[in-house]
From TrEMBL:
Residue ranges constituting the Thioredoxin domain according to the UniProt record: 340-484
One Pfam family this sequence matches: Redoxin
CDD domains given in the database record: TlpA_like_family
Organism encoding this protein: Chitinophaga horti
Compartment(s) where it occurs, according to its Swiss-Prot or TrEMBL record: Cell envelope
Chief place of localization: other
Keyword Signal on entry: yes
Protein name: TlpA family protein disulfide reductase
Residues that span the membrane, as ranges: none
Signal sequence segment: 1-22
Keywords attached to this entry: Cytochrome c-type biogenesis, Disulfide bond, Redox-active center, Signal
Length: 491
């Protein structure tokens, strides 16, 4: 990953086995697909701040081979049809993947070039199979509105099932990663569905009695202590850390920022970006984790909050950041986002609509364009469309406003079926390469739904526009203000 705090790289080099120091800084994925009708499939590799997805080209005979640069252990996933298979990779890996596309789950085989790595990949496959039970269990908690104590019991039971699968496998040099990943995978639903203050994620006495395992199993309060190993090796930990700072480790005075008191002269307007920044700066005494957390917070804020508000905090952090790699990553990210800030010219794109006609953003000069990046399999996207999209379209049908949707996650047939199901009119476009489609990467879409508002001259008014339901609730929303030539609100 080549992103480390000062001196951390030297310290890690002293602790890693000699083979890892000599291994090539890359891994190879190659293989063969039978009965495969496409010319690519998608695979994703975790980074310190994102999960990048790229297409793997497949030739006419079903063969493929691709080399990835790699600096540390990174989580890796490949997507076949609608199924995702997760594992992790390390420098020196050569993985051989084969499958029959007519029976993917029954035929998929992944082979490694080293025996201990094959053991780890086989274990990951067992945990992938367990993942379905995990998803069913967690979804059942929300669907049935299970009380907190019962939810915590369900989460702990499933956590221990996975720990027993790991415990039954041979210990390897990366065993620690399995235990770290599982702890933070299950800690997230425990945090959101129950409470970390009331309930704990605990391994069973049987597992804790195993002298070989006890040094790997994380203690119930492990999340309260900064963990540099987890930061560098586990995307599950990084995801938890980001959410914990933004949603859990919150100052008490930020909870009622919509209260009228905060509009009076004696109160400072609530700024969630500044709050998260100061929380992270205060929470961590480990330099690498502190600077990573702030960098991640500001990257997310640039994608979802008013640019100028983020910039105030950004300038402050540049004075205090001490890990050059993280600071440089943030500077580069901000440079990219400058092209999308309000007042910038909207990048032009051309995609095909549901009738197969090529449609360009430039076709709508003279009209406001409200852009909705969405997905067929995105729950919040569908909820907003179902509850509010048709009503918003009706409200502005006589106005010079174009509602333009871009679907980024489905196959054409499923996309068209969904358009018909929800009676979604307007201009409906399809991103043929999913998240790899240039319009998605150019606009920096890191999550959906995501909305933009572009004025009649092709200038970005808001790169984080309100969603349909928010527009519907506001009788003087951003569309109304833009139509009346008033400057849209930025708060």
């Amino acid at each position: 990953m080549n992103i480390q705090r000062l001196l951390l790289g030297a310290l890690l080099a002293l602790t890693l086995p000699t083979y890892a120091q000599q291994a090539p800084k890359q891994f190879v994925l190659k293989g063969h697909a039978t009965n495969f009708k496409s010319d690519f499939f998608e695979a994703g590799l975790s980074g310190m701040f994102d999960f990048s997805i790229k297409g793997i080209p497949v030739d006419g005979k079903g063969n493929f081979s691709v080399t990835y640069p790699l600096h540390e252990i990174q989580d890796f996933a490949f997507i076949l049809d609608d199924s995702m298979f997760r594992t992790f990779v390390e420098p020196g890996d050569t993985l051989t993947l084969t499958w029959d596309d007519t029976r993917i789950n029954a035929s998929m085989v992944l082979k490694a070039n080293r025996p201990y790595r094959q053991q780890e990949i086989d274990l990951m496959q067992q945990l992938n199979n367990s993942l379905y039970a995990y998803r069913d269990a967690i979804q059942g908690l929300y669907k049935n509105d299970v009380r907190d104590s019962a939810a915590a019991a369900v989460i702990n039971a499933q956590y221990n099932k996975d720990l027993k699968i790991i415990a039954a496998a041979p210990l390897t040099r990366n065993s620690k990663k399995f235990f770290v990943d599982k702890y933070y995978q299950y800690l997230e639903p425990l945090k959101s569905r129950a409470s970390l203050q009331k309930f704990r994620l605990e391994a069973s006495p049987e597992l804790l009695a195993n002298e070989q395992l006890v040094r790997y199993i994380l203690r119930p309060d492990a999340y309260q202590f900064p963990d540099e190993y987890a930061l560098m090796h586990s995307s599950e930990y990084r995801g938890f850390l980001d959410n914990y700072i933004r949603f859990e480790y919150a100052m008490k005075n930020g909870g009622a920022y919509n209260d009228d008191r905060y509009k009076s002269p004696g109160f400072i307007p609530f700024n969630p970006i500044a709050r998260n920044y100061h929380n992270a700066m205060a929470a961590f005494d480990v330099l690498s984790i502190r600077d990573w957390a702030v960098t991640k917070i500001l990257m997310g804020a640039y994608m979802h909050e008013p640019f100028d508000k983020v910039d105030v905090v950004y300038q402050q952090f540049l004075k205090e950041a001490l890990v050059p790699a993280y600071r440089d990553s943030l500077v580069a990210f901000r440079t990219k986002m400058l092209k999308l800030k309000p007042g910038a010219k909207a990048p032009v794109f051309t995609l095909k609509d549901d009738k197969g006609k090529a449609v360009s953003l430039s076709d709508f000069k003279g009209k406001l364009v409200y852009v909705d990046f969405w997905g067929v399999y995105c729950g919040p996207c569908i909820a907003d469309i179902e509850s509010s999209a048709v009503k918003i379209h009706e409200r502005y049908k006589e106005k010079p406003v174009v509602f333009l949707t871009i679907c980024i996650d489905a196959k054409p047939d499923k996309w068209k079926e969904t358009l018909a199901k929800y009676k979604l009119d307007g201009v409906n476009l399809f991103a043929p390469d999913g998240v790899r489609t240039p319009v998605v990467t150019t606009y920096g879409i890191a999550g959906i739904p995501h909305y933009l508002l572009i004025d009649e001259n092709g200038i970005i008014l808001d790169n984080n526009a309100p969603r349909y339901s928010e527009l519907l609730r506001d009788n003087n929303n951003m569309l109304d203000q833009a139509l009346s030539k008033k400057k849209p609100r930025t708060n």
